Amino acid sequence: xxxxxxxxxxxxxxxxxxxxxxxxxxxxxxxWLLVQIKKSNPKALLISGDIFDTPHPSSKAxxxxxxxxxxxxxxxxxxxxxxxxxxxxxxxxEAPIPFLKDRSIHIIGSLxxxxxxxxxxxxxxxxxLFPYFRSHELYNYAxxxxxxxxxxxxxxxxDTGLLLDKLIDHIFEIKEGNKNVLLAHHLFxxxxxxxxxxxxxxxxxxxxxxxxxxxxxxxxxxxxLHNHQYLSKVDPIICYxxxxxxxxxxxxxxKKINSVTLNSDIKVKEIAVPEFRxxxxxxxxxxxxxxxxxxxxxxxxxxxxxESFLEVQISxxxxxxxxxxxxxxxxxxxxxxxxxxxxxxxxxxxLNEIKSRKKESTAEELFKDFYLQKYEGxxxxxxxxxxxxxxxxxxxRSEN
Length: 400
Hints:
With 400 residues, the chain is of the alpha/beta class. It has helices spanning 23-40, 59-74, 90-94, 97-100, 135-145, 157-171, 289-299, 323-330, 348-360, 363-374, 383-399, and strands spanning 3-8, 16-17, 20-21, 44-48, 79-83, 105-108, 119-122, 125-130, 179-184, 219-222, 229-233, 237-240, 256-262, 266-272, 279-285, 308-316, 336-345. The chain has a six-stranded mixed beta sheet with strand order 6-5-4-1-13-14. Strands 7-8-9-10-12-11 form a six-stranded mixed beta sheet, with no helix packed on it. α5 (135-145) packs across α6 (157-171). The model has no long low-confidence stretch (mean pLDDT 88).
């Protein structure tokens, strides 16, 4: 029998960008998602955490969430599985369970000693819900059910990994013959951060090793990272669905949900999420900013109902007075709103040094310069990202 479900995460309902509400885009996404549910008629919808952007979301964000849940179950036979993320309050998400569980909406918001409902078995598929939790919650659980493993425990990766392995075995019921699907919201393996996620770690672990889940599950539906990405494409498929909209100007690409079909094998169909609001990021200098802004206004598409947001970064060797007002004047009659204006004053000798350095730099050095310029405040390039770049560079060089 073929079973299909949709995997999404990281809605961050109520999030703002430079004080601008994203609720209009989030509402548009949820309306679009309802259409996808109607089209494909999935058995289940998996939402892998960070439903809201704060533990105590606004009334408007809550209304949007509950209206979506109501319309989803009223207009289909779908079953919904939800876990908390690091931005959510687990107890807040769980509060309406008495009203929602009878409507086939299941929520696991926290790791609790008393809880016994982490696995749900449905027509040959078992859905295992692994909410976001912190180290002290893991230790509290271990004290109750496997205290022998806490004796002489060190907060290093091997000891924490052992506790996690015991935890997974204890809270999930692996039913023989079923396909096993895991929902989780932590850092696993070497996922690529986009910049707007919070760093997550458990004692001794920067990320959860894939070895703890690889042989137990067939599909792992992850939340937390905002770029759609796979940690494994086979045995099992492990995927971060990513956020449905960009929460930074640098997160504009690769917005998708997964439609997954479980049969004798597993097939994943990626569905691109439409861009409901255009986000522009321009890096300019004092000589070309007017030309580029006028070109942007000229080419602005009229297909977006919501006004576009713009971030401008201008480098100059002298102070630029009143430039923000000048840019706003250039945009005055366009559907583009300036949200962020950054100016970088570069001394003449620094400009010459930059030009000279770029001419003489290796590809690796240029990549490092690019990364540190793009992600201001970062002191170094992540090791895993450097490794991936070097692999690609090696492949490119070997082909020449």
